[in-house]
């Protein structure tokens, strides 16, 4: 069966793309060009999201919310992403011990690609993360390396993109992930390094000494050469299984049973969502009542929590008191959490709507993580965006709860 893979960077708009046609028993055929020129005879179509643009997080979900995608999961991942849930697409992948693993990626870029692919006649698509196209074996991690950076699959449903390294020095993100795995007693016995080309293979002996774990070379290549059955789908998809048509008469009783089961399940699901919607309305009504009791002069109540925070800030200012969301308060918290930084490392400072943003250059990942941890311990919401390109600045966004 033929498979068409399309590489979909969320930060780059269509219509041009890289693609690969994968056929069982034969080498894959890569290509590049407009969507209108894609091969049309493939039985399956996959859209591959770059490893650096898919974040894997662990959360604990209530039993009734383990599989749905959408707003419920977006809010569940909010604490670890520190971004507006409406900006993210979140998908449930599976279980890792007692925790649920979620994949988080940008909503706007995903929707742009989905609509463009649908307009090109590719409405039936399986979405994949480049990270999870690597092999998975218990007790082993698999790392794809292009000579300066890469990504690693650390679990059945997990992985991460690395920062930069060189022939003798492994990336810092890989070291930190290994340290965390040793703390959790889940460290691998072996890391298999897959270079994108033979020349990209690092000095495995030097890396092994630095990391304290055995390394071995794996097959060279990239997402274009991954087997057709590799990966974990990030969302719903469908295939045309025409060879099942002959089994239809024998499957009809099972289809009726399945239909009845799905109908009952759907009714229960609708009832559950109706109960949750009613609970949400009651909570909002209670918050609105509390807000009107505290501020009876308010003309309209649109967002009770936000309006309450703003009114409280105004009351503090009227009383001559500082609010935790003020510029000086946030700057003071940031200064207390920051170790001594190199001269000239602070490039940009911005403040808007109780949110402080700073851009730092020449600051390593360890320092950024220390700052993020200290600010989080102080009760602040912190988001860290690493440098997009070498030489660019890292951005911290700090907001009072």
What does this structure look like?
With 401 residues, the protein is an alpha+beta fold. The chain contains nine helices and 17 strands. It has helices at 71-76, 78-81, 107-119, 172-183, 204-211, 248-294, 304-318, 327-337, 365-377, and strands at residues 2-7, 16-23, 29-34, 44-49, 55-59, 88-96, 99-106, 126-129, 140-145, 150-153, 159-161, 190-195, 214-217, 346-352, 355-360, 381-385, 394-399. Strands 3-2-1-4-8 form a five-stranded mixed beta sheet, with no helix packed on it. The chain has a five-stranded mixed beta sheet with strand order 11-10-9-12-13, with helices on one face. Helix 6 (248-294) packs parallel to helix 7. 24% of the residues are buried.
Short structural description:
The protein has helices at residues 71-76, 78-81, 107-119, 172-183, 204-211, 248-294, 304-318, 327-337, 365-377, and strands at residues 2-7, 16-23, 29-34, 44-49, 55-59, 88-96, 99-106, 126-129, 140-145, 150-153, 159-161, 190-195, 214-217, 346-352, 355-360, 381-385, 394-399. With 401 residues, it is α+β, with helices and mostly antiparallel strands.
